[in-house]
Write a structure and sequence with these properties.
Layout: E1 3-11, H1 41-50, E2 56-60, H2 61-70, H3 80-88, E3 91-94, E4 106-108, H4 113-123, E5 126-130, H5 133-142, E6 147-153, E7 172-175, E8 180-181, E9 187-194
Parallel strand pairs: 1-5, 1-6, 2-3, 2-5, 3-4
Antiparallel strand pairs: 6-9, 7-9, 8-9
Length: 208
Amino acid sequence: MGQIHLELFATLDLVGQGPGGPDEDPVGFAFGGWQAPLLDERTGTQVQASYEGTDALLLGRRTHEMFSTYWPHQEGGPDDDIATLFNRVPKYVASRGRPDLSWSGSVQLGADLPTAVREVRERHERVKVVGSLNLVQTLLREKLFDELHLWLHPLVLGTGKKVFDGGAVPSVLALLAPPDAGPRGTVFLRYGLLEGVPATGDMTPPGD
């Protein structure tokens, strides 16, 4: 069985909506593109390394739509490595509607999303989920992921869709590598999902 990795960019208040640009997810959200002023070479290197070994993408409809109009035209440019990877690997799309599947390798998942995702994980070694916050909520709820890669940015927005926005269930994660901070304050955190639920205890000193 392969692994599913969630790749997410978030603010300190865990808003993950519209990091890439003002038109990414504009409905009711005025901060689209909040990530752009904080980009740095170190974060770019982290992202590049995170995609090594990826052999499939798992995307929500909106993210797939944006990617399909951008990445097919980026090979040979500054993001050639990622463009070549994204254009080559299968793209599995979670959608209740009828998404445009003209981007080579795009396949729509069935209506039973948890079952379809489990089948994808059996079929591939390393599956990446990029953005796609609505899809992420289902994967969190079903514990259908193996690693969570989170880039935390030094911003507080106070509004917007959050990483754990209705999908979180009691879970335990382990930090897989030391936090890696970039020069502009973005911190890369890599967690692995463990079995079980959070334990509790009593911090009252003995005898009190």
